[in-house]
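Work Package 4 report. The design task specified in the project plan requires that, given a folded chain encoded as structure tokens, an amino acid be chosen for each position. We show below one input record used in the internal validation round.
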């Protein structure tokens, strides 16, 4: 159990007068000696799987639609973001599929990932249980009704495209007051430069851990508040659709309001750091089209800017491949740029890619382990290829008229996060 030494210190912060470096005690014993969560703070079964991997029902009305307004009057999905994503896809094999097959209103939040401590590093040596930060991840997907698809007429259909939006939380005290500190970004910059935990300044790491833990505690407090008080312990065990959506109408409405308030608080446009998207071309026939394109964007001051996609070494964090502005793949074929790099002798790259079923068998278990592969250590498609259905590139969402897609990587991530909270 972690000491509460710095929880009291953090409570003295306010969003008007807190300083970015307030922890002067450099007599640091170990990474496990500071911060942490108060004993008995939450229900005995909190958090459980469905607290951290929140999946909504495909056949219900949207929990959050793109055009819905947040508590402060903004749309949950800024239209300019979707416009920029669509424009970027037009320069790829996807073409104008997003504009042709979907309206703005079709896009909905199909799932959320509450991540108590998302690793900030670029390689496994940068200890993920210490150098991590509370983060909300949203998955947007367009869902259409009464539409002609490759196998007939579908009453409701989740298109084979998605947007993943990643929002690290602003630093907070345990009661939710904002803390004016740039400590997360300071640590992230040093990790991108390849530094390890014991190479960071002690004062920086001490402050980072303390603010990380108060922010995580507030985040988890708000996450527990999403639960219906009319459900007994155990209802949130295992993976699948969130149980509140199957309750009576009043409970469903109350749950929807809690979800909207939660997303409205933690998914502010200015907090977005990364947005990734993938899509197949027009036609609604995943197995026959057999083409998917991945894109990546950086969030800066509420806007998104397309990035080149790179793969970093698991050993030292250095770049081992540059995919370019888009990654175009099929079920058993990798992007041309990566294939060319492998053919030129890039053995390290070949060892971190999943391309076909044989690769899944050989490397899939490692890829699903967040302690062995950080996200930057492989390609987008490799991580999305872990599902049993070869043309299912989704992680925590729907596919066609199928209600549930849960990737082995999601399971690995959630198990790590549950352990992270419980050991504190």
């Amino acid at each position: 159990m972690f000491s509460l030494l710095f929880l009291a210190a953090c409570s003295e912060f306010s969003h008007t007068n807190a300083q970015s470096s307030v922890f002067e005690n450099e007599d640091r014993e170990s990474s496990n000696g500071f911060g942490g969560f108060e004993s008995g703070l939450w229900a005995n079964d909190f958090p459980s799987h469905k607290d951290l991997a929140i999946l909504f029902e495909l056949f219900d009305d949207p929990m959050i639609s793109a055009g819905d307004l947040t508590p402060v009057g903004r749309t949950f999905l800024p239209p300019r973001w979707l416009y920029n994503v669509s424009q970027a896809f037009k320069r790829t094999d996807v073409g104008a599929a997003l504009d042709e097959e979907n309206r703005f209103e079709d896009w909905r939040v199909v799932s959320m990932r509450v991540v108590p401590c998302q690793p900030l590093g670029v390689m496994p040596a940068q200890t993920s249980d210490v150098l991590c930060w509370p983060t909300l991840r949203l998955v947007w997907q367009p869902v259409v009704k009464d539409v002609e698809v490759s196998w007939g007429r579908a009453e409701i259909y989740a298109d084979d495209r998605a947007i993943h939006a990643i929002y690290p939380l602003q630093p907070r005290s345990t009661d939710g007051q904002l803390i004016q500190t740039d400590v997360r970004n300071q640590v992230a910059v040093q990790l991108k430069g390849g530094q390890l935990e014991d190479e960071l300044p002690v004062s920086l790491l001490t402050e980072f851990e303390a603010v990380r833990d108060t922010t995580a505690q507030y985040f988890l407090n708000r996450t527990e508040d999403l639960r219906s008080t009319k459900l007994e312990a155990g209802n949130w065990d295992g993976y699948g659709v969130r149980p509140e959506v199957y309750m009576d109408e009043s409970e469903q409405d109350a749950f929807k309001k809690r979800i909207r308030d939660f997303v409205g608080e933690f998914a502010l446009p200015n907090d977005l750091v990364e947005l990734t998207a993938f899509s197949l071309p027009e036609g609604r026939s995943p197995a026959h089209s057999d083409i998917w394109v991945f894109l990546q964007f950086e969030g800066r001051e509420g806007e998104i800017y397309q990035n080149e996609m790179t793969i970093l070494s698991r050993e030292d964090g250095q770049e081992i491949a540059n995919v370019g502005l888009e990654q175009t793949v099929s079920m058993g074929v990798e992007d041309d740029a990566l294939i060319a790099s492998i053919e030129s002798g890039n053995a390290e790259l070949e060892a971190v890619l999943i391309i076909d079923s044989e690769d899944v068998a050989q490397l899939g278990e490692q890829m699903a382990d967040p302690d062995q592969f950080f996200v930057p250590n492989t390609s987008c498609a490799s991580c999305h290829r872990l599902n049993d259905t070869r043309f299912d590139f989704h992680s925590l969402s729907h596919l066609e008229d199928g209600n549930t897609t849960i990737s082995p990587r999601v399971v690995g991530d959630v198990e790590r996060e549950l352990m992270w909270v419980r050991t504190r």
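The chain is about 30% helix and 20% strand. Validation will be extended to a larger panel in the next phase.
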